[in-house]
Write a structure and sequence with these properties.
By secondary structure, the protein is an alpha/beta fold. The protein is built from 16 helices and 17 strands. It has a five-stranded parallel β-sheet with strand order 2-1-3-4-5, sandwiched between helices. A hairpin with a 7-residue loop joins strand 11 and strand 12. The longest helix is centred in the N-terminal third of the chain and has 61 residues. About 4% of the residues have low confidence.
Amino acid sequence: MNAVEAPPTDLRVLLRMVTARDGAMAVRVLSQAGVAAKACGDAAQIARLMHEGAGALLIAEEVLSDAGFANVKQQLQTQEPWSDMPVLVLARAGMDSLAITDALQELANVTVLERPMRVSSLVSATRSALAARQRQYQLRGTLTGLQEADQRKTEFLATLAHELRNPLAPLRTGLELLAKRNRDVEEDWIHSLMARQVSHMVRLIDDLMEVSRITRGKIELQFAPVALQDVLRHAVELSLPLIEAHAHQLAVAVPDQPVVVHGDSIRLTQVFSNLLSNAAKYTPRGGQLALSLTHDGAQACVTVSDNGPGIPVHMRDAVFDIFVQVSDASRAAQGGLGIGLTLVKSLVELHGGTVKADSAGLAGDGTRMVVHLPCAGGQVSLPQASPPGESLTSAAGHQHVLVVDDNEDAADTLVVLLQTLGVDATVAYSGARALQIMEERAPTVALLDIGMPGMDGFALAERIRGNPAWSPVTLVALTGWAQKSDRERTAAARFDHHLVKPVDVGQLIRILNGLP
């Protein structure tokens, strides 16, 4: 906080007159009127006392030319946005000095009072200045409270998303386990339903994490020249199950010639899959959706449109705010968190673009979401396609995996799944128990939950790495945190891999298959 903004215990006027006698008289007059005042010997003293907080400055015109006033001026010019300390200047009658002209141009809140002046006018002007200053401090308190509340909300979202990953881990692993077994038609339908809902929950949690990262300025983008055609194709692939589930028709119109932008292909795919999914959710069954791409050389324009109920005019901008939904449309879509479009807007703006909602209102004329992105030249970097599904090879069959997690359901289901896939797997529910098991038989791979009570994953990894007999063990971190800093921390703790909960079993299989 700037020195000028230090919260005072009592707002007072700092004053500097031409003579000490004038200063003492001004203090006496203001004190009799109930205004706290302090006479300063020179401008340098004013600058020092401003560190303790002040309500207003009352100075003679001559003080503006004092060499020490430069420090006062510098403090006034570097106030925080909420602060605007009043400066009352007592000017000589009939004089328009250069010092006053400069003060009016360089300082924002200057009031010139011509002297000699009536005592009542001086008291009135000073009281008004102090009242205005008091309102500024009240505004600062309000802003600080809002900022703290917003910070707490952001931290809550991040923690909530992280904690929700833990119960999802055994659910996803259990579904993977059931997928390996023979099922009748009814069981297959139930399994598919549960798999879709768990995937939907994972996506909602991922969105919460993304919004939290963006709000805290911790989002990480990997920029490269990207062909929007490839991004849109992947976005359609991600959204197609939802579109087909609602029996919608999707019309896609994109040019053959690559339209290249400078961006993060994964994040851009996320933007357009969110827009397509929104269009699918909020359009009545059997609707018409459209995706188009145009460009003029400088700007690329992607439009996602639908023939759903539309958005009220007063909500066109508000729909991009976090947790905001159009109530009727929300009910039609069976709810949601109201963060998808917030994420879209934030990611688009991080790419130097804009997104706008265009709708005639709730008249059944639908909605158009229009995204503009700056075009870029250069070699195209194709989005990385997800590797095809793998099955365990005989090379992984000889691995001995130790799963360490205090969440017994998560640990047990993962161990059973690995055993079903032909892997020798053992479970431990604490770091201490894991060390006992390793003394008996060292694994080739250890999957360590980071957030265990007592001995956490980092402490356990340190113990394992500190034993030369266990140096060949491949360490895999299991955690709900997926930011770059989290990966850097596990790497610094000498983990070989970093897996985010709920574990992508295909990714785990690829790790096992890649080991000697």
